[in-house]
């Protein structure tokens, strides 16, 4: 019997039908326990009445539910009610890939993006020993917000056995002797031959799906199922014409190899090649011949990082011809050494210079990469070498930059600016920066021996390359709303330099021209990140995710033409004088996940984005975060409902806003905003209604840390040129009181629930560590020993948690009923994988932790190397 709106199935209230398939009906339903809408599939047929069949169904459903991957449809529950057996899944809005293909072939880039997402989902399943066995366009869903979901993982093989159906209807099979699991048109040759399906059978099916997306027709379709299976065994896939690159056609052909051993080694291997193809400069279907880069053959050798492999994305670019066609841009991926991950890609701050740099002569690349200990080091690679070398003495390094002779590297480490010779030897300390390593916004080194570097909330600073006290090189104009000067880059004359200015007004945010020994500055171009001069005469800079190149006259120091987009995936970048460009795709997209006290991931939330300064409400149901707009560069406060999975924009203003903090009743939010030229403290209703109220302003920029449990005090920090300060602000009179000052940065002050202590971070040792001090005054205790951050009180006040950088562990400290923390050593709760990158929060009972996790398909841990980048301007 079909269900109607208002009926109940177990705890779920039926809202209406969604459709029907080979296994049963699908309904939209309401889950009253978690206040969310779900999809329920009711299984029909004789097998659903079999207890053995139901046990198997539940067993496989648990297996699929454990996959927990953003490209696999999530299964929430299985159950039975009044003779009906059902599975509860996440509710999706959008259309199947089958529906999309029926409207016509897809553009090759879009098809490749979809295929790479499918491959990511397959890879996650295969790693758990799960083979889909029925991959087809009808089992791929394209959501309205651009996600790709693979449906019916494993469960598709629990339906009816193959019959003489037409190819247009889903044909499912139970795994049993003499039956064929899957859909006829997407069988692999080994399945047709009666052998068991394997992970590489799924790759054959994916090859069929990708071919179908590009051609618009089914790959091996014939008049009858028997003829179709014969074609799978003997025929090649038909040719098609839609402008797809030759490299993509070859990739499909490899997926469709008759011998499983000749296909890709794994779905993850296939996904990597698909993404490499998306970032490559490829010839299209034989219509354009791949042309050479006119330099030495040695310069276009494969770039293999750390002895591991690198995907060379430009296929056929090293062919030579006697008529010497125009040079092309040769692109490739650069991977960090095996066992390490690139550093500096999880910060999400648009104007960071990046933790890598190509040498001015274009022959060497330096980058920061973290080992399993979590500590980043500098590594150097020559482009004509197959080895990567670690620079000893560069532990905790960030923001590397080269001397103009390509012999030395400057970098920040432990709050100190240092330099080291590439040939080896100990590093030399040049001056103090008092900047945590992950906050260093870059430097540059002129041929005449001047070094410029940036710090937060300060003008650019200048020192000689031999070291010494730093002096201001720019004048921070607070009256124009300027908040940061950073990312310096010298012009060829060694006197003029470019730098990025962050301001409250978008019109004043961008690239400025400065001159040594002068405070005069000239606005050049709007930007959301750094800029560099690149020979033969261009200014390279960022607007949102787009890397731009504008004609630039270095003699008259002015922009002379309209900018051209080089790539829409550009984040931090570096360029040499010889035409070598290196950039990192923008990384900021995260997915929220719940982790238990043992470190096990227990739920992925369908909330994605670059969510900064995340703060969990006291009841654990909502999350406030600062979310940047990558097109404007401005940041607003948003609130996310973690139960209903919806979001609300709290602020909307052409300014940067951060540090959202909840009131004790979760009804109000305070935050810092630079609407008046520095960061002041504002308050607004958490549901976004009403106007913001300015509750405290002063000459210094502020970062809000916490709001006391009695709602009578706010803790905030200020940072000046020589010290950091932690303050408390009494409410409602908005009277500030200095708690303490330190000769280093101090931030993230967290007052304990009972108001007896304040935990905070400080860089007074040269790196960020976690401290606790009696509140409002008294002794202090250092809790972390090898770098620490993100102190968080358990809402009931019984524990204090923090993250140990050195061990990459979440630590817990029991809060004493009396006395201090001197007799309370931290204990390790669980280790944190590198994918969980920035910040976490615990629930009211301290049993679950909310982390942000890199989205695999959006977080390729590689740099993109472009040789002869000016050729991109001619495409």
Short synopsis of the structure:
This protein is mainly β. The strands form 14 sheets. The protein has a six-stranded antiparallel β-sheet with strand order 1-2-3-4-6-5. Strands 11, 12, 13, 14 and 15 form a five-stranded antiparallel β-sheet that branches.
Description of the structure:
The structure is a single chain. The chain has eight helices and 59 strands. The strands form 14 sheets. It has a six-stranded antiparallel β-sheet. Strands 11, 12, 13, 14 and 15 form a five-stranded antiparallel β-sheet that branches. A hairpin with a 5-residue loop joins β51 and β52. The longest helix has 20 residues. It is globular, with a radius of gyration of 29 Å.
Per DSSP, the total helix count is 8
At CATH level 2, the architecture of the largest domain is: 6 Propeller
Give the total of beta strands: 59
User: Looking at this structure, what is the CATH superfamily of the largest domain?
Assistant: TolB, C-terminal domain
CATH fold-level topology of the largest domain: Neuraminidase
The CATH class assignment of the largest domain is Mainly Beta
Spatial extent as radius of gyration? 29 Å
For the record, give the distance between the C-alpha atoms at the N and C termini, rounded to a whole number.
60 Å
Task: Using brief descriptors, characterize the structure shown.
875 residues, 59 strands, 8 helices, mainly beta, Phosphorylase Kinase, domain 1, Transferase(Phosphotransferase), domain 1, six-stranded antiparallel β-sheet, 6 domains
């Amino acid at each position: 019997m079909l269900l109607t709106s208002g009926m109940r199935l177990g705890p779920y209230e039926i809202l209406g039908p969604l459709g029907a398939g080979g296994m049963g009906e699908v309904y939209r339903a309401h889950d009253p326990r978690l206040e969310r809408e779900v999809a329920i599939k009711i299984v029909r047929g004789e097998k659903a009445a079999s207890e053995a069949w139901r046990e198997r169904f539940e067993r496989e459903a648990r297996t699929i539910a454990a996959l927990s991957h953003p490209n696999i449809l999530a299964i929430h529950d299985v159950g039975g009610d009044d003779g009906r057996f059902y599975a509860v899944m996440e509710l999706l809005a959008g259309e199947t890939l089958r529906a999309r293909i029926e409207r016509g072939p897809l553009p090759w880039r879009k098809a490749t993006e979809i295929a790479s997402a499918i491959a990511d989902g397959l890879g996650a399943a295969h790693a758990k020993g799960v083979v889909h066995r029925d991959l087809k366009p009808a089992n791929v869903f394209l959501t309205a917000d651009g996600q790709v979901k693979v449906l019916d993982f494993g469960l598709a093989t629990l339906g009816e056995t193959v019959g003489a159906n037409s190819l247009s209807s889903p044909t499912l099979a139970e795994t049993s002797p003499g039956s064929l699991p899957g859909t006829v048109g997407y069988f692999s040759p080994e399945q047709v031959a009666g052998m068991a399906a394997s992970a590489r059978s799924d790759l054959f099916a994916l090859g069929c799906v990708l071919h179908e997306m590009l051609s618009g027709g089914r790959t091996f379709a014939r008049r009858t199922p028997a003829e179709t299976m014969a074609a799978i065994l003997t025929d090649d896939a038909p040719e098609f014409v839609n402008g797809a690159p030759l490299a993509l056609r070859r990739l499909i052909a490899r997926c469709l190899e008759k011998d499983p051993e000749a296909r890709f080694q794994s779905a993850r291997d296939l996904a990597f090649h698909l993404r490499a193809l998306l970032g490559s400069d490829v010839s299209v279907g034989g219509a354009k011949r791949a042309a050479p880069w006119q330099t030495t053959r040695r310069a276009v050798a494969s770039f293999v990082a750390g002895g591991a492999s690198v995907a060379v994305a430009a296929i056929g670019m090293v062919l030579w011809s006697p008529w010497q066609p125009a040079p092309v841009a040769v692109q490739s991926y650069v991977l960090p050494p095996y066992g390490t991950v690139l550093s500096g890609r999880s910060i999400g701050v648009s104007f960071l210079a990046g933790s890598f740099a190509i040498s001015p002569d274009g022959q060497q690349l330096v980058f920061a990469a973290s080992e399993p200990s979590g500590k980043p080091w500098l590594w150097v690679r020559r482009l004509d070498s197959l080895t990567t070398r670690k620079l000893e003495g560069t532990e905790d390094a960030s923001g590397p930059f080269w001397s103009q002779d390509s012999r030395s590297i400057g970098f920040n480490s432990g709050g100190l600016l240092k330099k080291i010779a590439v040939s080896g030897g100990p590093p030399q300390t040049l001056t103090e920066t008092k900047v945590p390593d992950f906050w260093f916004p870059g430097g540059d080194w002129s041929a005449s021996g001047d070094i410029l570097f940036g710090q937060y909330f300060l003008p650019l600073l200048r020192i000689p390359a031999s070291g010494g006290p730093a002096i201001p090189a720019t004048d921070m104009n607070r009256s124009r709303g300027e908040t940061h000067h950073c990312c310096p880059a010298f012009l060829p004359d060694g006197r003029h330099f470019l730098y990025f200015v962050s301001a409250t007004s978008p019109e004043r945010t961008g690239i400025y021209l400065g001159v040594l020994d002068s405070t005069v500055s000239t606005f050049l171009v709007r930007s959301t990140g750094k800029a560099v001069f690149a020979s033969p005469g261009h200014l390279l800079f960022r607007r949102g995710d787009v890397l731009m190149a504008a004609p630039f006259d270095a003699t008259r120091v002015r922009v002379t033409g309209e900018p051209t987009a080089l790539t829409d995936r550009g984040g931090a970048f570096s360029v040499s004088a010889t035409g070598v460009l290196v950039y990192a795709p923008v990384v900021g997209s995260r997915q929220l996940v719940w982790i238990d006290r043992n470190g096990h991931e227990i739920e992925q939330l369908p909330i994605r984005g670059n969510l900064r300064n995340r703060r969990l409400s006291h009841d654990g149901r909502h999350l406030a975060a600062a979310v940047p707009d990558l097109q404007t560069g401005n940041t607003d406060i948003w609130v996310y409902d973690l139960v209903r999975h919806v979001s609300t924009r709290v602020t909307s203003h052409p300014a940067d806003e951060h540090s959202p903090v909840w009131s004790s009743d979760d009804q109000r939010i305070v935050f810092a905003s630079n609407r008046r030229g520095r960061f002041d403290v504002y308050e607004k209703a958490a549901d976004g209604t009403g106007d913001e109220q300015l509750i405290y302003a002063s000459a210094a920029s502020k970062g809000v840390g916490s709001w006391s449990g009695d709602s009578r005090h706010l803790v905030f920090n200020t940072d000046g040129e020589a010290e950091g300060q932690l303050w408390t602000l009494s409410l409602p009179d908005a009277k500030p009181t200095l708690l303490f000052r330190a000769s280093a940065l101090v931030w993230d002050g967290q007052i304990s629930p009972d108001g007896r202590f304040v935990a905070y971070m400080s860089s007074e040792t040269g790196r960020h560590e976690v401290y606790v001090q009696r509140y409002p005054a008294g002794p202090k205790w250092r809790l972390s020993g090898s770098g620490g951050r993100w102190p968080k009180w358990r809402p009931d006040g019984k524990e204090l948690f923090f993250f140990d950088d050195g061990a990459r562990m979440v630590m817990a400290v029991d809060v004493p009923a009396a006395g201090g923390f001197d007799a309370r050593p931290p204990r390790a709760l669980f280790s944190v994988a590198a994918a969980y990158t920035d910040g976490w929060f615990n629930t009211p009972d301290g049993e679950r932790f909310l982390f942000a996790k890199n989205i695999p398909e959006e977080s390729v841990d590689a740099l993109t190397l472009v040789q002869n980048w000016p050729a991109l301007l001619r495409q």
